Amino acid sequence: MLKWASLAAAAAMMAAGAASIGTASAQEQVKACWIYVGPIGDHGWSYQHDQGRLHVEEVLGDKVETVYIENVSEGPDAERTIERLARDGCNIIFTTSFGFMEPTLKVAAKYPDVKFEHATGFKRADNAATYNAKFHEGRYVIGQIAARVSETGTAGYVASFPIPEVVSGINAFMLGAQSIDPEFKVRIVWVNSWYDPGKEADAAKVLFGQGADIITQHTDSTAPLQIAEEEGKHGFGQASDMIRFSPNAQLTAIVDDWSGYYVDRIQAVLDSTWEPVDVWGGLDSGMVSMAPYTNMPDDVVEMATKTEEAISSGDLHPFTGPIHNQAGELVVPEGETLSDGDVLGMNWYVQGIDDQLPN
Amino acid sequence: MRLVLERRSEHSQAMAVLSPVIAIGLTLLAGAIIFAMLGLDPLYALYIYFIDPLTSLWSLEQLVVKATPLILIGVGLAICFTANVWNIGAEGQLTMGAIFASAIPILLPAWQSPLALGSMIALGCLGGMIWAFIPAILKTRFGASEILTSLMLVYVAQLFLDWLVRGPWRDPMGFNFPQSATFQGWHLMPTFGGTVHLGSILAVVIVLVLAVMVGRTLTGFEVKVLGNAPRAGRFAGFSRSRMVILCFLLSGALAGLAGMAEVASTVGQLQPTISPGYGFTAIIVAFLGRLNPVGVLLAGFLLAISYLGGEGAQVTLGISDKIARVFQGILLFFVLACDTLILYRVRFETARAPRLAPGE
Amino acid sequence: MSGLEAVILTIITAATPLLLAALGELVSERSGVLNLGVEGMMVMGAVCGFGAAFVTGSPLLGALAAIGAGMGLALLFAVLTLTLVANQVATGLALTLLGLGLSGLIGEAFVGQPGVKLGRVSIPGLTDIPFIGRILFGQDPLVYVSLALTGAVAYVLFRTRLGLTIRAVGDNHQSAHSLGYQVIATRYACVLFGGACAGLAGGYLSLAYTPQWIENMTAGRGWIAIALVVFATWLPLRVALGAYLFGAVTIFGFYVQAMGIGIPSQFLSSLPYLVTIAALVVISGSRMLTRVNTPACLGQSFVPER
């Protein structure tokens, strides 16, 4: 009798021990999962996130198992896909597009033991954090470069959708350019897509025809730069270093680098120190970095590097007053800087931009 | 050696049931070959794709939710195609239905009552019907190809949705991001156990109603006659114009209902992407279901399984999501090829001159 | 380069894939076969053309591969609709779906790779003439191919026996059959020609227009091409007109934006589709325009009466 009881007790203890491995104070291994809104081969947004994932595998080795699903549309399928990952044993799930916000929160509510991280969103929960990168810091730098390199004093902007992230990018670009040349102009075309090389190419051609000789974009394909290369003009890469596609045209690129952040967060899960934070990193944290400066004179490289360092160290804030909006009103007084919240919700143009902001 | 087709005097009943089965079998075979070429164990891969989605309750619920819009739209399209009316714009009608229905939670958020939900359903159908009426009237009055006009209107509807969601109907609390405020309370489809929602029940009911209509009523007969033998239909006094408009209105209403069901349940708000191409996938569903309402119900399920299986395969096997779409294309091809067997007897002739059958 | 020159050049490049695909579909429809799979054939042409050029380094081989891919898919369509007498509309749709899915699968290896660009023609002396030099003498070779093809199709259809056969088969296949014309063989040839053109049009997109591969890069152009055939009342020269008009409307939207005029971009983006619908209504509504040229047996299956 005693023998059976002790066997049963041992079995029970083993079972309890096995069950508690998942919730032990320090984890042996973490299963980290990502969902991407586009293909990892887009050489843009999703590609950079996947590069971050690969870096995690390199750095954390055995301690992490990674899974990813690409091409998840932001509609009804998103919730099911996120939930599938949660059910599949993922400990931390990174959802890498704004449109995943509501589905992420819904699934987070159902699976309190799983950690969620939503990129570019603004809603959090006890087990859901948000993270984003201050791309506009990079925009300021390239704005300055554009003003120095352009001969016509006009840049072309291939923009995707008039959301705050894109608008603040345009504004930061202009402010950077205006700090060198107050008369600098920008022409903007909205292609209404994040990734449509055909349209982006057409937009670039039209912009060049309108007198722009520098192109920058907030869309994901390499098409605008390829057109710049063809026409002997210059441009800036987006999200990843696109020099391979335009060896003579690319001046630099704003590169998203999520690898450091991903390693930190997964390590936090391993150490059980994970908290639902709201991280908005920029040039200082390395989340935003500039591709090597090429195809420009040395003094421009020097200027750009200096600006980069100034923003990194906090000496320079892209949205420092005085800033006027298109109507001429003073939005940011001299000496002050725009708050993070105001940058996140930006829906107005700075003075000097002639186009009307849609809506 | 020549392939000769002999028209059967009447549709082969046996083949009518067998042909989709043969088509599915051939697709599975093709799939196994593709998997083997990719270096995977074919049987395991097929299991992940088609059996695994049926093995858990969560998965079954997701299947029902995913199949609902496919069945709703598919059954409407099945009736259209039977009548030789080609509504390719269901995706646009779905979008307009979603927009119309969303007017209530967005413009009258405080109106919370079952009546609000009922109105949303009605508006969803209305939106789809209006959008479907356009290609119908352009066809009957001007003879403009309904295939092309209904398709062009899909792009127009999607752009209109985009403008609404980024502009007038944007959530004022949403940091200027392109989405509407989330729907609350009676503006969401009631669910049974959290996932399966009212839309699914409606789908089944509608399938049964339409099955009766097509099989037993005069209108159903009209549909079939005008589709198969238009001249005979005209002699019988059936109006082709009326049929075109009726079919478009019906399928438009169902597509609009599907759109409403999507935004009022899984998504819970209006945003730029509300459908991963349901309006087009439903075309496959309609054909796979042999243009028969009950068949469409089964076909919708099968296709939902292939979607869920495809996602599972991405996670478990690491293969891309494109395979699911290739599957669907291959399946449709085989279905169409096997359909020939229903109408024609296939023979191979080796002699130069055709042999005369006794009595010919 | 002035603004007007840029706009004209952009219109030409935007119109060329439409023209190529539409000419192929025109020939197919003239023989009585409605092939709605143009989008699928185009995108397969794009991926195979890109892949072949990427692997071999030769854009010419890429163009040939694109043609081959389009023809391959067209062959599948032909077998189903001409030999197995399947419904043409449904089969065309199936072709589109299969083409889109298969191209995505094949293209996975090529996403994010820089492409091999089909170089532009450059005739010393002529190309450098300001303004018209680039426009007339400095285009991609496929632009010239598309214009030559327009002339060739017009000539063959209306001035040769082959053209007569094609039109006869499309207008009344039973009579044509009794007169001894090879209906099925003619249709096979026309469908394959349509596939070749659609494939080449897709190849143009991935080899010249934007030398890269992304999924669904045809973005609905195949459907526009089909609409253009109706818009042009099945006449090759009008197809060219329609293609350039459509290209112009598309570019017009970007032009308006770049000029800073505040019309909602979604409305501008929808203009090409609205214009197509309007054109279809006008053309189809005019009995005179359509009666004369519509192939009477369009879309009908042919089984020889015994």
Provide tags for this entry.
heterotrimer, B: 360 residues, mainly alpha, ABC transporter involved in vitamin B12 uptake, BtuC, two-stranded antiparallel sheet, 4 strands, C: 306 residues, 13 helices, globular
Please give the structural blueprint.
The complex is a heterotrimer of chains A (359), B (360) and C (306).
Chain A: H1 2-20, E1 30-35, H2 45-60, E2 64-69, H3 77-87, E3 92-95, H4 101-110, E4 115-119, E5 128-133, H5 135-149, E6 154-159, H6 164-180, E7 185-190, H7 197-209, E8 214-217, H8 223-231, E9 234-239, E10 250-256, H9 259-270, E11 278-281, E12 288-290, H10 298-313, E13 323-324, E14 330-332, H11 340-344
Parallel strand pairs in A: 1-2, 1-3, 3-4, 4-5, 5-11, 6-7, 6-8, 8-9, 9-10
Antiparallel strand pairs in A: 10-12, 13-14
Chain B: E1 2-7, H1 13-37, H2 42-51, H3 57-82, H4 90-107, H5 114-142, H6 146-166, E2 191-192, E3 196-197, H7 198-216, H8 218-228, H9 230-235, H10 240-263, H11 278-288, H12 293-316, H13 322-343, E4 344-349
Antiparallel strand pairs in B: 1-4, 2-3
Helix pairs in contact in B: 1-2, 1-13, 2-12, 3-7, 3-8, 3-10, 3-11, 3-12, 4-5, 4-6, 4-10, 4-11, 5-6, 5-10, 7-8, 7-12, 11-12, 12-13
Chain C: H1 3-30, H2 38-56, H3 59-83, H4 88-107, H5 132-137, H6 141-159, H7 161-171, H8 173-178, H9 183-209, H10 221-231, H11 236-258, H12 265-285, H13 287-293
Helix pairs in contact in C: 1-6, 1-9, 1-10, 1-11, 2-3, 2-4, 2-9, 2-10, 3-4, 3-9, 6-7, 6-11, 10-11, 10-12, 11-12
